[in-house]
Design a protein that fits this description.
Number of helices: 18
Structural class: alpha+beta
Strand order of the largest sheet: 2-3-8-5-7-6
Order of helices and strands: HHEHEEHHEEHEEHEHEHEHHHHHHHHH
Distance between the termini: 35 Å
Number of strands: 10
Length: 420
């Protein structure tokens, strides 16, 4: 082994300071805690940031398509043929035509802005993020003019709670594009029957998205036999660029194609920047703890000058002295890194349970869906990032005690014992 049994024994003995050396021991304890908390905090924060990205991406791409096709200057007329041509492309999983638009909804004396989408019932049932998260009502009633009670509408659970709505209630949709009459422009409005409530777990969608049957949307927006968008899902969202080029070549001119990266670039760029900044800032905790190890070891070397001189006179080489104090300092960092590694993984794996427990004990909402967009606190542990954090902590832990150990090895026994 690189470090002999004698060197490890003396190094561990120096870590168990006597009463008169208690201050050095306190510095060692705080250095260990600093390393542990720094590593744990970095692992937890990186896991939460990864969880945010994964959860938001899965929900955004579950509600919205990986690619969206729009008419360059007018709505899409021959959309059944275009949908079939898109579905025939390699890598395309599905393509659905829909009508969408910004509207205002009113019910029970309250009003709110919303995004309404008209889709075919079979296409909505194939959208698993919506179909598998119906919390009230049923998609079986999602047909134009169903049950003779008017056209149905699906709304998010958050909107229903905010506007005090239930399945079977009516909700009025007002279009900003009014109808021109002899007396002026009259707002276009229609009342729909709530057929179901959905909850996808992202506040923006649960609070502001509505779904109605495609024929009802075409009638409301006055787009007979037309749609204004086609959503496309692919087998590999990270490879949308190649599929986008093939799609543009197939469709020809007159269409505008946007992929999910273009539509949400600023959003995910902001998350990435915040993630990098958090990593940099929190890494300073580990660096400060490493400086504590450095200062503590320098004080230890100064305090143990007489012991070093005696060891040298008894035959200990400079290399042995250097290894003794290197092991003494590095052990603090290694133990702290191991403790932070275990704490970080344990906390990240149970972060939602811990959040719910703390929320119950304090009686305050620690993770507001209105602010953070998601209804639960996500955490995704990336083994590569955990390895990088651990390696960085070990690097500083091994680097910090080198200078004190080198100074101890260079100590002259004669000078150390002159005044003893």
């Amino acid at each position: 082994m690189i470090f002999g049994a004698f060197e490890r024994l003396v190094a561990m003995r120096y870590l168990r300071a006597r009463r008169q050396e208690g201050f050095i021991s306190v510095i060692a304890v705080f250095s260990l805690l600093g390393i542990a908390l720094g590593v744990a905090t970095l692992i937890i924060v990186m896991a939460v940031m990864n969880g945010f990205r994964v959860e938001l991406l899965s929900r955004i791409l579950g509600v919205n398509g990986h690619l969206s096709v729009y008419g360059a200057s007018r709505p899409i007329s021959d959309y059944p043929d275009i949908v079939e041509r898109i579905r025939a492309l390699d890598g395309v999983v599905s393509a659905t035509a829909h009508v969408e638009g910004q509207v205002m909804v009113t019910a029970k004396g309250t009003a709110s802005g919303a995004m309404i989408r008209g889709v075919l019932p079979e296409d909505l049932k194939a959208r698993t993020l919506i179909a598998d998260n119906i919390v009230a009502g049923s998609l079986d009633d999602f047909t134009a003019g169903g049950a003779g009670q008017g056209d149905p509408i699906l709304i998010g659970k958050r909107m229903a709670q905010r506007m005090r709505l239930r399945v079977g209630d009516g909700i009025t949709v007002v279009s900003p594009q009014g109808t021109t009459t002899v007396i002026g422009t009259v707002p276009r409005l229609k009342t729909y029957r709530i057929a179901g409530l959905f909850e996808v777990g992202m506040f923006e969608y649960d609070n502001s998205f509505l779904y109605i049957p495609l024929p009802a949307a075409q009638l409301f927006f006055r787009l007979p036999e037309q749609v204004n968008a086609i959503e496309v899902f692919v087998d590999d969202p990270d490879n949308v660029g190649a599929i986008k080029l093939r799609m543009a070549a197939t469709l020809g001119a007159g269409f505008r194609i946007l992929d999910w990266q273009q539509s949400n670039s600023s959003f995910f760029n902001a998350i990435q920047v915040e993630r990098n900044v958090m990593f940099l800032i929190l890494s300073l905790i580990i660096l400060v703890a490493a400086f504590n190890i450095l200062s503590g070891q320098i004080m230890l070397v100064k305090d143990k000058g007489r012991d070093i001189a005696i060891l040298r006179t008894m035959g200990a080489t400079r290399g042995m002295i250097l290894r003794i104090f290197f092991v003494s300092g590095a052990s603090i960092g290694v133990v702290g890194t191991l403790a932070g590694f275990i704490l970080g993984l344990a906390f990240s794996s149970n972060i939602e349970t811990i959040r719910a427990l703390l929320q119950g004990l304090t009686g305050t909402e620690l993770f507001s869906a209105e602010i953070y967009f998601l209804s639960r606190l996500p955490a995704v542990i990336d083994p590569l990032e955990v390895a990088q954090v651990t390696a960085m902590a070990l690097f500083w832990s091994f680097l910090a005690p080198i200078i004190p150990a080198w100074r101890a090895a260079r100590l002259d026994p004669v000078e150390a014992l002159r005044y003893e």
